[in-house]
Amino acid sequence: MIEFQNIQKKFGKQQVLKSIDLKLEEPAIYAILGPNGSGKTTLIKSLMGMVKINEGKISFNGKTLAGDDYRKQISYLPQIARFPENLSANEFFSLIENLRGPAQRKQEAIKWFGVEEFLDKTLRNLSGGMRQKINLVSCLMYDSPIVVLDEPSIGLDPVAMIALKKWILEERAKGKHILLCSHLMDLVQELADEVIFLMNGVVHFKGNIQKLLEETGAHNLESAIAQFLISKKPSHAQSI
Amino acid sequence: MLKVFKYSFLDLMRNRWTLGYFLFFAFSTFGLLYLSGDSSKVVISTMNIIILLVPLVSLIYGQMYLYQVRDYVEILLAQPISRQAIFGGYYLALASALSISLLLGLCIPILIVQPEGFVANGWLSLLAISAILTFVFIGIACNLVLRFDNRLKGFGVGLFVWLFLAIIYDGLILVVMLLFENYPLENASLILTLLNPIDAGRVLLIFQLDYSALMGFTGAVFAKFFGTLVGSVVLTFGFGMWLFIPLMQLMRKAKRKDF
Amino acid sequence: MSRYVVIYVIVLGWIVTAQARELEVGSQRAVTSLKEALKIAQDGDILCVDPGTYTPDTVLIIDKSIKLYAQGEVHIKAAEGQGIFEIRADSVSIVGFHLSDVGRSYIKDLSAIWVDYSKHFEISHNKILNCFFGVFCTKSSNGIIRHNVVKSNAEEEHSSANAIHLWYCKKIRIENNLAQQHRDGIYLEFVDSSVIRYNVSTQNLRYGLHFMFSHNNEYAYNVFKTNGSGVAVMFSRHITMHKNHFLNNWGDAAYGLLIKEIYDATLSDNLFYKNTTGVFAEGSSRVAMKDNVFDSNGWAIKMRGNSAKNEISYNSFVGNSFDIATEAKKEENLYHHNYWDDYSGYDLDRDGVGDVPHRPVNLFSYLVSRVDESILLLRSSFVQVLNMAEKVTPALTPVSLVDEQPLMRSPH
Questions:
Q1: Bridging pattern class, strands C164-170 and C133-138
Q2: Does A125 fall in a domain?
C-alpha cells in the first residue's frame, strides 16, 4: 500500500498541493488525472523525492519513504525524454545500471520496444519516438514493485503503443502498484483500475471509472472529466 | 559520486569543446614560445590569457553543460543515489575535464620546446593557479545553474560575475586607492586583492617572477608578506574560501531544491 | 740662442736618464726588503721586485719619483691596521703587484694604494684583493689607473669601501679595470676632465659607478652589471656617457642610471637591460639621450617633474613594463624619433616615421606614479582594458608627453 498523508507543497506563495491524503491499497493501475497545474506531476515528484514536500509523509507498505535507497523500489518514467547527449543508448543503460545496480529485464525490454537497431547510436541523433522508447526501456528494465509513468505514450507509434499497453497490463498481473499520468483518455479508460482526479492541489475524486461515469452521468471518461471540470471550475474546462 | 563523475567525465572528454579548449591553449602557448623564446615572458603573456579566459570559459562552459544536465537530471534523481553525489560528481567531472585539457594544453608545448624551463619561471605556479581558477569558477557555475532556472538569467548573472571579478573589481580597487591616496594603503589594497581569486592568482605569479621590484617600497612590504607564514596562510585561506564556499553552497542548494 | 737651449735640455735629459738606476729587490738580492729599497732609491730609479710574498711591518711610503715593477707574482700583504703603498711624489708607477689584506677601518681610509698630491702616476696591472679601499686618490692629477683587478667580499655597506676612489682629482684615466664586490665600484668626487673607459663594475653593494660634483668627464664602454643600484651621477656638468651597458640592476630601489642635478650631458648608445628603472632623472636639464636601447626594464625612464629641456631621441624602447614615468602634467622635455614597441600607428608615406603621434605615458603608468600601491594591478585585465580604451580615446591620457615622430622600426 502506498500512502500519502497530509501532503502539502508550496512553490513560493503558490500552494500546489493542499493537504493530500491518498491510500493506494491494492496493487493496481492508478491513473492520476487533472488539468494543467493541478499538481499531478508535483505529487509524483514528491513520491520520487524530487520535490521536497513542506508537510506530510509518504509511505510504502507501512515504511516511510526517506533517504535515497527507497527509490530502488520504484521505476520512474520522466515526462520528457532527455539524455546525456554524447552517450549511445547502450552506454546510457549501463550508466543507469551503474547507478542503480544490474537491471533484471534489460534484454527483454530492449527487444520488447524494438530498441536493438539503434542501441549504438549517439542519443543526440535520435528522433523523439526513438528517445521515448529508450526512456521506456531505461525505466521498465527494472522489476520494481512501484511503477510511475508520466505521459508514457508521447511520440509512440501504434506498434510501440500496443507493446506498452501489453507490458503495463503484465506488470499489473504481477501485482505492482502502477501510477499513470496521461492526457490520452482512451489509454486511461483502457488501462486504469482507479482514477484519481486532482484539481488545484486537492483530490476531487478517487474511485474506479464506473463510479466516475455514474457520478457524472457521462458515457465515457473524456466527457466525464469535462463535466467534472465544468461543474467545479468552468474556466479550466478546455484544458485537461 | 564516482559513478556520476566517471560517466560525466568521459562524456566531457569526448566533447568537441573540451578538445577545442585544449587546442586553443596548446597553440597559443606554442605560438608564444615560438615568437618570444623567453619562457618567463611566455609565462606572463599566458597568465594574461589565463586570468581572462579561464574564468569565462569555466563559467560559460560549465553553465552550458549543467543546463543540459538539468534536462535529464530527473532520470538520475529517480535513481537510488543522493543529490550530493550527483552534483558533486558533475562538479568534479567538469572541473577536472577542463583542468586537464587546460593543463595539457599548457604543458605539452613547454615540454616539447623548453623542457628545462618547465620547473623554472613560475610555470608550476601558473599551472596550479589555472587549475584552482577552473575549480573555483566551475563551482560558481554549478551554483548559478541551480539558482536560476531561467537560462538567460543564469548566463547573464554568470557573465556579470565574470566581468565583475575579472575587470570591474580591479577598477573599484583603483578608485578606492585614488580616493584614499593620502592614507597608508599597503595592507588594505593587499587584502582587497587577495579577496578576488583572479587577482590573488595574478599577484602571486607576479611576485614569483620577481616583478615585485617594480613595486618599490610597497613591493618590498608585499614581498615580505608573501614570504612569511602569515602570507601563505592568508593566501591558502583565500583560495580555500573560494573553493569551499561555492561547493558548500552547491551542496546545500542541491539538497533543498525542487526539480 | 734658443738652439743651444734645446741642445742643453736634451743633453741634460740624457744625463738624468742615464743616471736612473735599476734597483732589484728580493730575498736573493742585496736589498731584501721593500722598505729598505724605497729608502735608498732616488728620483728616477726603477725598482724591480722579485716574486715572493712580502709582509712589510708598516705602510710603504713612496716620496720619490720611482717606478715599481713586479717581476712575476709579487704578493704584498698589508700590515695590521695599515695600508700598503702611499704615493706622495710625482711620476710614480706601481705595476703588476698583488696586494691584499688591507683591513677595514672606521676611522682611517685604509687603502691598498693611496695616491696623495701626485702628478703623472700610473697604477696598472695590479691585483688588489680583499682590501678596504683599493686605489684611493686625493688631490692628484694626470694619472692612469688601468688593467687592475680590484675585488673584495663586501657584505654590508657601512663596513665596506670603494674599489677605486678619487677625490679632488683632475685628468685621470681609469681604463680596463674590474671592480667587484666593494661598496662602490668607482667613486669620483670633485674630479674633473677625466676619462673612464672599458671598465667592468659588478656586484658592488651600492653603485657600479658613483660620482658627484665632477665636471667635464667622459665614461664609455663600461659594463655595470648586478650592482646594488647601478650608476649614480650627481651634481655634475658636461658629462658624456657613451656605449655603456647597464645590466640587471634589479631590486626595490635599483636603477641602471641615476642622474641628479646633471646639466648639459650626453647619454648615447648605451644599453639598459633588465633594470628595475633604466634611467632615473631628477632635476636634470639639457641632457641629450640618444640612440640608447631600453630592453626589458621595469621602467625605461623615470623622469621626475623638475627635469626639463632634455631631448630624448632615436632610442629604442622594447619589452619594458613601462616606458616613461613622469608626474608632470605639462611636458617640458622633447621626445622625438624614438622606437616604441607598443606603438600601434601606421606609416602611409613609408618614410619610416609613424603618421600618428605616440603617447608613451599611459593612464595606468601615470596612476602608478601617483599611488604606489596601484602597481598591484600590474598586468590585470582591467589595465589592459584601460590601455585599449586609451588607444581609442587619447584624451584619457592625463600627461601631455608626446612623440610626434615615432619610428616604425627600431634603429638598433
A1: parallel
A2: yes
Question: Nearest C-alpha of chain C: how many angstroms from B229?
Answer: 21
Q: Where are the alpha helices (DSSP H) in A101-204?
A: 106-112, 128-140, 158-173, 185-191
The C-alpha of B159 sits at a distance from chain C's nearest C-alpha, in angstroms, of: 15
Task: Tell me if C223 sits within 8 A of C203, measured CB to CB.
Answer: no
* b/e burial code for range A35-44 (CB count within 10 A of at least 16 → b): bebbbbbbbb
Name the 3-class secondary structure at B60.
helix
Residue C14: predicted pLDDT: 61
Out of B171, B186, B220, the one facing C373 most closely (by C-beta) is B186
pLDDT in tens, B192-213: 888 899 999 888 888 777 676 6
Q: C378–B174: do the CB atoms touch at under 8 Å?
A: no
The pLDDT tens digits of the residues spanning A42-95 come to 899 999 989 998 988 898 988 888 888 889 899 999 888 888 877 889 988 988
Q: Packing angle between helix B16-36 and helix B83-113, nearest 10 degrees?
A: 30
A-contacting chains (≥3 CB pairs under 8 Å): B
Decide: helix, strand or coil at residue C225: strand
Dist. CA A46–CA A32, nearest whole Å: 14
Start-to-end Cα distance in chain B: 19
Answer whether residue C252 shows pLDDT above 90. Answer: no
Q: Does the pLDDT value for residue C384 go beyond 90?
A: no
Q: What gap in Å lies between CA A88 and CA A100, rounded to an integer?
A: 18
Predicted structure pTM score? 0.80
In-domain check, residue A217: no
* Rounded Cα distance, B100 and B127, in Å: 10
Query: Phi, psi at residue C248, to the nearest 5°?
Result: 50, 40
* Cell numbers describing residue B91: 562538479
Q: How far apart are CA C153 and CA C137, in angstroms?
A: 21
pLDDT for position A110: 93
Which is more confidently placed, B19 or C344? B19
Cα atoms found within 13 Å of the Cα of residue A36, Cβ hemisphere only: 5
Beta carbons within 10 angstroms of residue B153's beta carbon: 12
C93-108 pLDDT tens trace: 999 999 999 988 888 8
Q: Is residue B47 within 8 angstroms of chain C, CB to CB?
A: yes
C69: Cα within 13 Å, side-chain hemisphere: 8
Residues of B in contact with A52 (CB under 8 A): 256-258
CATH number at residue A58: 3.40.50.300
Write out the residue range of the structural domain in which residue A76 sits: 2-23+39-184
CB contact under 8 A, B202 and C250: no
Contact at 8 Å (CB) between A85 and A53? no
Given CATH 2.160.20.10, say whether it is the number of domain C16-218. Answer: yes
Tell whether A106 is within 8 A of chain B (Cβ): no
Reading the block at residue A138, the C-alpha cell is 531505461
How far does Cα C48 stand from its chain's mean position?
32
Assess whether chains A and C touch, using the rule of 3 or more C-beta pairs within 8 angstroms: no
Tell me, yes or no, whether A219 lies in a domain.
Answer: no
Confidence (pLDDT) at C306 = 85
Interface mutation vs chain A, best among B75, B82, B84, most A CBs within 10 Å: B75
What is the count of residue pairs from A and B with beta carbons less than 8 Å apart?
67
Q: Which residue in B44, B167, B203 is closest to C376 by CB distance?
A: B203
Tell me chain C's radius of gyration from C-alpha atoms. 26
In contact, B26 and B102? CB cutoff 8 Å: no
Neighbours of A139 (CB within 10 A): 24
